[in-house]
Amino acid sequence: MKANCWMGAKKVSVERVPDPQIMNPRDAILRVTSTAICGSDLHLFNGFIPTMERGDIIGHEFMGEVMEVGAEVKELKPGDRVVVPFTIACGSCYSCQRQLFSLCENSNPNSWMAEKLWGHSPSGLFGYSHMLGGYAGGQAEFVRVPFADVGALKVPSTLSDEQVLFLSDIFPTGYMGADFCNIQRGDVIAVWGAGPVGLLAMASARLLGAERVIAIDRVPYRLKLAKEKANATDVINYEHGDVYEALMELTAGRGPDACIDAVGMEAHAHGPMYMLDLAKQSAMIETDRPLALREAIRCVRNGGIVSVIGVYGGFIDTFPMGAVVNRGLTIRAAQTPVQRYMRPLLERIERGEIDPSFVISHRMSLDEAPHGFDMFLRKRDQCEKVVLKAA
Amino acid sequence: MESQQTVGQRAFFSEQPPVGSNERSLARIDRAWDGDGAGQSTSAKRWAQGLGLFSIGLGLAELLVPEDVARLIGAKSDARTRTTLRALGARELLSGVGILAQSTNPRWLWARLGGDLIDVAMLSTTLAAEPGSARGVAATAAVLGVAALDGLTAAELSREEAVREGPLPNALHVVAAVTVNRPPEEVYRFWHNFENLPSFMSHLESVRVEGDQSHWRAKLPPGLHLHWSAEIVEDKPNECISWRSLPGGLLQNHGRVAFRPAPGDRGTEVHVALHFEPLAGALGRAFGKALGSLPTQQLRGDLKRFKQVMETGSTTKAGEP
């Protein structure tokens, strides 16, 4: 089959690889119909995620048709049309039983690597390094889905691929970012990053009743999307002024009630701190550049919530712990327990409350995946989200 | 059975299959948790390097301008003194180069300390010939000072070497624990059938149970196998099982697994201790060494797989079949 493979930092290519096979009675094999390039794939592409190996199949946002199921798969049968969460979860461990699916204790066979880096291991993920399981990803014609009964969600034929594809990651992730904010009447939510996850966090925050949602980015077309499609009430372009000053103006000095960091480890900014973080990251003194996170902590109101849904990998420098302690802030973060959000969010899509396909800017074939990465990375042609048609 | 481990942290990585260039990035992670970005250079190593340079400088002076050195230490500058100083210079040069080339090896500095003591002995004969020579006293004091530095640095390097190498892999004692989200009865029942052990213990090939005895077969790294027979010595249903190998086998070992209810309905805590006796002869030493680079992480991996089998029905697999 054909699959998009990581071939080293800054290089992906579509290769011929062996078809996946059932390796465990709880597996299913899917024929992928639609798959997408995620912002977090760019961290892989740029070489910031350790334990990637040349030839690894990437991709963790995908859906398709069930081709084959293992002997112990009960809920699925060949022909079913399903969306698959990027978090692989067994459904029976302590964490899964508490709906913490992204912390599944059994789905990462390389947990010792993650324990080295983080102390304990989270769940395995599709196509996202050996440290997180070494599972083949879904930017391919076929994919093996472990614990298929827990993962794959059947979707109705009345909805198109594009309407439900993002249930695999970015819609639940954006929604969780807003959910973390515990939104109350009158709340103002600021969102750093108007990429696909940021946009879905903005739209979700409005769905959950936020009074105002402020989008912060530097790319004009993304800020335009935030306002026109994601229901943001205000936008701040940080290249045109100071974010803290602008937010204090918009909130009359209170600060946003909650701040969402939808940027993560490769943040951009202005000034000496950015140069310093860039230098430290290059020298491996810190692994992640936490510029958006620092700014979110600085801006949020006293007692407010900082919701972190951007990806961080390791260690950061100059973390403003004084602000967190003295101003009583709460920091919430996670890889999304997708299985917990999928069904209720599918219902929201069915009821027409939201159509997450508004983030899509480009559609191309699986063969064009390397081109898609390049466009998304360089933000060419107003690229916001690339969907690959595998079949 | 004591419950300490005899294997140092450094074993953690060597036992896992190398995964591309991951070793390097993961080694950096270790240093990040330790808050040590600088890496390997210890202050003892830096002292050793300084002493090595000093040794070379002194050695060159004694070799090239022995008459000046003789004057400096208050000795007569006759032919015999010059010859002696040249010999001492050659020794200084040799130990200086040795120290610089292997600045974490304490032996060169211990040798240098020996040289210092010879120097002091010689200086004291000079002093005896010319009592009260101010230069002789100063030179002796200087050598004693350097000797003290040599001794302290050598002792620190020896200590660091012992830490690096860890205890010798004689008897091997390994403990690890895991929490399994199943009731103790079920976990005990599965473990109690030793024939189930190879399904999660990666170096076990097979276990066959015959009455009170079980026959174990283990894989060794270079395609070798090891057999032994074992008997159960303690068996408390739902609480613990202990076993030991029967006399006569090459690998004498015993083990114990304890099952305790985890608090708040979190399932069962499984605590395992394995003990391997030292083996006889060269083969034994080689095998001990191979085992010495395995244990704790290996057992932890085995218990993770045990948890997978108990909670999900089989071990978790990724990658190509």
SSE inventory with pairings:
The complex is a heterodimer of chains A (391) and B (321).
Chain A: E1 2-6, E2 12-16, E3 28-37, H1 39-45, E4 56-57, E5 61-69, E6 81-84, E7 87-88, H2 94-97, H3 111-118, E8 124-125, E9 142-145, H4 148-151, E10 153-154, H5 161-164, H6 170-179, E11 188-192, H7 196-207, E12 212-217, H8 220-228, E13 234-237, H9 243-250, E14 258-261, H10 272-282, H11 291-299, E15 305-308, H12 321-326, E16 330-333, H13 338-350, E17 362-365, H14 369-378, E18 386-389
Chain B: H1 11-14, H2 22-34, H3 43-64, H4 66-72, H5 79-101, H6 106-129, H7 134-165, E1 172-180, H8 184-192, E2 204-210, E3 213-219, E4 225-236, E5 240-245, E6 253-261, E7 268-276, H9 281-292, H10 295-312
Antiparallel strand pairs in B: 1-7, 2-3, 3-4, 4-5, 5-6, 6-7
Question: What separation lies between the terminal Cα atoms of chain B?
Answer: 40 Å
Structural class of chain B: alpha+beta
Q: Report the helical percentage of chain A.
A: 25-40%
Mean pLDDT of chain A: 95
Domain count of chain B: the total is 2
Radius of gyration of chain B: 30 Å
Task: Compute the CA-based radius of gyration of chain A.
Answer: 20 Å
Features:
heterodimer, A: about 400 residues, alpha/beta, Quinone Oxidoreductase, Chain A, domain 1, Rossmann fold, 2 domains, seven-stranded mixed β-sheet, 14 helices, 18 strands, about 30% helix, globular, B: about 325 residues, alpha+beta, Alpha-D-Glucose-1,6-Bisphosphate, Chain A, domain 4, seven-stranded antiparallel β-sheet, 7 strands, about 50% helix, disordered N terminus
Concise description?
By secondary structure, chain A is an alpha/beta fold. Chain A has helices at residues 39-45, 94-97, 111-118, 148-151, 161-164, 170-179, 196-207, 220-228, 243-250, 272-282, 291-299, 321-326, 338-350, 369-378; strands at 2-6, 12-16, 28-37, 56-57, 61-69, 81-84, 87-88, 124-125, 142-145, 153-154, 188-192, 212-217, 234-237, 258-261, 305-308, 330-333, 362-365, 386-389. Chain A has two domains: 2-169 and 336-389, Alpha-Beta Complex (Quinone Oxidoreductase, Chain A, domain 1), CATH 3.90.180; 173-333, Rossmann fold, CATH 3.40.50.720.
